[in-house]
């Protein structure tokens, strides 16, 4: 470890960054602080300006660690602008099923462009949902860190093993290239049978998992009363769900006992997650090693249902909130700052520091990559981005490689 002082700061090849503010991943430092990295952007220290010597890059705005997008579906990028807004959840799902097939060339082109868009917007790591192997080629380039969540669905209990085996084939292809950052995961409470949850829960043991959670009010309605738009979904799909019996509990309360084995589980959306749902998760965390993260995707909520999480969700869970863009099928852009900007207006109790922390430190912790990403601690290489002081227009100053 090198102790930094004025002499070696001027002779060794350090990079020095100063701005109106430096956001460290957890707190905001003012313009008197200078971030010191080596040539590759590995963090050395944050020191006072008067001790930093010469050749300081001065920037207007906020310097931050690169952003972590905890919920995306890169493979759906070719559906940008294809599905109309405000259809509600069930019709959105039906349209995805109907329209997702496309020539491989178009799919690959859209994936490449969407990744470039994320990089341009300061995103350095992504929790990415995969139903196909379509994103493997792009991910092999190593431009962004991905945790691949290979997603399985199947609500009919008799199909559990068959669905599991099909998902396992896709998982094995990902695991060949990305053995440490691929997990088989359930799609959502309303699309996974108990039998399939059981098969999945063992494979997620001590790994990082995710599930779509309470994205629409109809999801809770289906579980609490056995009625509503999800019964229409299965009718349209020609799937007999007469076996299904409501437990008169919310969707999360009905399936939470399947979420006990992963080391971390990212719950995506949480639009209709109540305080009592959160209490159920807390008691699971108290009895197991599982940690839960709430991944907020407000612009996808706006696109599909125009419903948003309850502000109360944020109040007690600030260290467990992370952000996601969802896919270009339900968002106009893959940009966490646009999500932050919207949340800033929507949820008055959240500070800039809270919002930036969701996008950096918390996201890195949710994806288990805090040894490299999410904050400006010595030895990390989190990428350095510049944001203007109004939290718009992110720009990469230095990458993570
Ligand atoms: Zn999603």
Topology, element by element:
Elements: H1 6-11, E1 15-23, E2 28-29, E3 33-37, E4 43-48, E5 57-65, E6 67-72, H2 89-99, H3 104-120, E7 123-130, H4 136-140, E8 145-152, H5 160-177, E9 182-186, H6 194-203, E10 208-213, H7 217-225, H8 229-236, H9 251-255, E11 264-269, H10 275-287, E12 291-296, H11 298-304, H12 312-315, E13 321-323, H13 336-346, H14 352-366, E14 384-387, E15 395-398
Helix pairs in contact: 5-6, 13-14
The structure holds zinc ion.
Named CATH architecture of the largest domain = Alpha-Beta Barrel
Total helix count?
A: 14
The low-confidence parts are 1-8
Helix content: 25-40%
Descriptive overview:
By secondary structure, the chain is an alpha/beta fold. About 35% of the residues lie in helices and about 20% in strands. The protein has two domains: about 90 residues, Urease, subunit C, domain 1 (Roll), CATH 2.30.40; about 300 residues, Metal-dependent hydrolases (TIM Barrel, Alpha-Beta Barrel), CATH 3.20.20.140. Helix 5 runs parallel beside helix 6 and helix 13 packs across helix 14. The longest helix has 18 residues. The radius of gyration is 22 Å and the shape is globular. The site of zinc ion has 6 residues, from loops.
């Amino acid at each position: 470890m090198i102790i930094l002082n004025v002499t070696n700061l001027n002779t060794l090849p350090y990079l020095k960054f100063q701005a109106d503010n430096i956001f460290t991943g957890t707190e905001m430092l003012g313009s008197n602080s200078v971030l010191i990295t080596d040539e590759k952007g590995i963090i050395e220290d944050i020191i006072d300006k008067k001790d930093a010597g010469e050749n300081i890059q001065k920037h207007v705005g906020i310097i931050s660690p690169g952003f972590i997008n905890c919920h995306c579906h890169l493979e759906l990028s070719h559906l940008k602008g294809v599905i109309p807004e405000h259809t509600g959840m069930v019709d959105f799902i039906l349209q995805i099923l109907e329209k997702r097939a496309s020539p491989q060339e178009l799919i690959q082109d859209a994936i490449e462009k969407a990744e470039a868009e994320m990089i341009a917007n300061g995103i350095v790591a992504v929790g990415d949902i995969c139903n196909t192997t379509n994103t493997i080629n792009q991910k092999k380039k190593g431009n962004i860190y991905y945790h691949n969540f290979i997603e399985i669905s199947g609500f009919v209990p008799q199909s559990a093993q068959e669905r599991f085996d099909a998902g396992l084939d896709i998982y094995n292809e990902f695991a060949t290239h990305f053995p440490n950052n691929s997990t088989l995961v359930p799609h959502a409470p309303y699309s996974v049978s108990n039998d399939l949850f059981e098969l999945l829960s063992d494979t997620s043991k001590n790994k990082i998992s995710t599930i779509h959670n309470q994205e629409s009010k109809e999801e809770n309605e289906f579980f609490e009363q056995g009625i509503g738009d999800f019964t229409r979904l299965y009718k349209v799909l020609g799937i007999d769900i007469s076996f299904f019996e409501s437990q008169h509990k919310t969707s999360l309360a009905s399936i939470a006992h399947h979420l006990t084995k992963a080391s971390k589980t990212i719950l995506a959306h949480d639009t209709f997650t109540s305080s009592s749902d959160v209490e159920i998760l807390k008691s699971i965390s108290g009895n197991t090693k599982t940690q839960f993260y709430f991944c907020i995707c407000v612009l996808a909520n706006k696109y599909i249902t125009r419903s948003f999480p309850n502000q109360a969700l944020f109040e007690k869970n600030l260290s467990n909130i992370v952000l996601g863009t969802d896919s270009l099928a339900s968002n106009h852009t893959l940009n966490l700052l646009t999500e932050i900007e919207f949340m800033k207006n929507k949820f008055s109790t959240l500070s800039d520091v809270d919002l930036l922390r969701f996008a950096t430190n918390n996201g890195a912790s949710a994806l288990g990559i805090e040894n490299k990403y999410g904050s400006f601690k010595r030895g990390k290489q989190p990428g350095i981005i510049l944001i203007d002081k109004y939290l718009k227009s992110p720009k990469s100053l230095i990458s993570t490689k």
